Amino acid sequence: MAYETLLIEISDQTGIIRLNRPDDLNALNNTLMDEMTAALDDFEANDDIGCIVIIGSKKAFAAGADIKELKAFDFASAYQKDLISKNWERVTSCRKPVIAAVSGYALGGGCELAMMCDFILAAENAKFGQPEINLGIPPGAGGTQRLTRFVGKSKAMEMCLTGRFMDAEEAERSGLVARVVPTDSLMDEAKKVAASINAKSRPVTMMVKESVNAAYETALSQGVLFERRLFHAAFATEDKDEGMEAFIEKRDAHFKNK
Ligand code: DAK
Q: What does 175-214 look like in DSSP terms, one character per residue?
């Protein structure tokens, strides 16, 4: 498929989606979100791909949903058309790990998209924020919910109420991002992390992802029980035998994803 707003690349076993609307700081319009849905569908269906990276430009991961597109809606049309809802959730149902590699601005829907990914790798120049309040709207793609879970009520409330941006150092300190890397090495670092995940047993990476995500949706005792069921299930895989044999034989494991 030819993409208008994305650059797609497969590097080793990593599917890379680069947002590509440079003139609008990668503002997330309907076409881009449709294309991202299609790209994620393709990568998910491709057995050669273990892991996915979403990245923008040096200046902007994404400066939010496209305000020029949003402006045209009123309540009746937003409600009846379920404004920009259907193509925003695809990343959250992806079973393969998805890494957000954020350089520059990740604002509004851009910050929300990054938070929908499994973890965020931030460049030193990254800036996160939910500035929707300056436009006379609240966050609409999970910003008040996910940001609060990442950084706690006080900081999330302050950011959503004032529109203040958080830099990479503060984002790492607050638990929003996994790690901060030099700005010019962001893509290389993202590929390295992805390669390290690609070398693991794919069904087990899926189990880990499902289990960590369950921590957000369940009580602790139910989450631990869910983890226990997956743990026992992993003992039915050939990869469990390979991983343990490799350890005992002091060699690298070669997983078959079985
Ligand atoms: N939309 C459209 N165009 C944008 C944009 C955006 N979000 N952000 C930047 N641009 C465009 C600018 O209009 C400008 O275009 P031209 O004027 O050159 O044609 C170009 O990108 C460069 O921007 P600036 O000239 O402003 O660049 P600066 O370096 O001076 O400033 C900035 C960078 C990021 C601080 C500034 O551009 C800015 O404040 N941008 C807007 C940030 C913002 O308010 N974002 C939140 C948008 S609302 C939902 C899903 C998603 C959402 C809601 C619901 N559902 C699933 C229901 C999300 C909503 C939002 O994200």
A: TS-SEEE-GGGHHHHHHHHHHHHHTS-HHHHHHHHHHHHH
Task: Tell me the CA–centroid distance for residue 18 and ligand 1, in Å.
Answer: 18
Closest C-alpha residue for ligand 1 atom 16: 24
CA gap 51, 120 in Å, rounded = 14
Q: Give pLDDT tens digits for 3-43.
A: 999 999 999 999 999 999 999 999 999 999 999 999 999 99
Return the best residue to mutate from 5, 20, 23, 24 for the ligand 1 pocket (most ligand atoms within 8 A of CB): 24
- pLDDT tens across 43-82, in order? 999 999 999 999 999 999 999 999 999 999 999 999 898 8
Using CA atoms, how far apart are residues 218 and 95, in angstroms rounded to an integer? 19
Q: Indicate whether residue 106 lines ligand 1 (CB < 6 A).
A: no
Could you tell me if the CB of 61 is within 6 A of ligand 1?
A: no
| Alpha helices (H) in 49-185, listed in sequence order | 67-70, 75-80, 109-116, 143-151, 153-162, 168-173
Give me the count of residues in the chain: 258
- Position in ligand 1 atom list of the atom nearest CA 139: 53
Tokens standing for residue 93: 């149902």
CA distances from 182 to 47, 81, 106, 119, 124 (A): 32, 42, 17, 17, 6
Whether 176 contacts 151, CB under 8 Å: yes
Q: What is the set of active-site residues?
A: 65, 109, 112, 132
* SS3 of residue 144 by DSSP: helix
Among 25, 57, 89, the mutation site with the greatest number of ligand 1 atoms within 8 A of its Cβ is: 25
Closest to 199 (Cα-Cα) out of 24, 31, 12 = 12
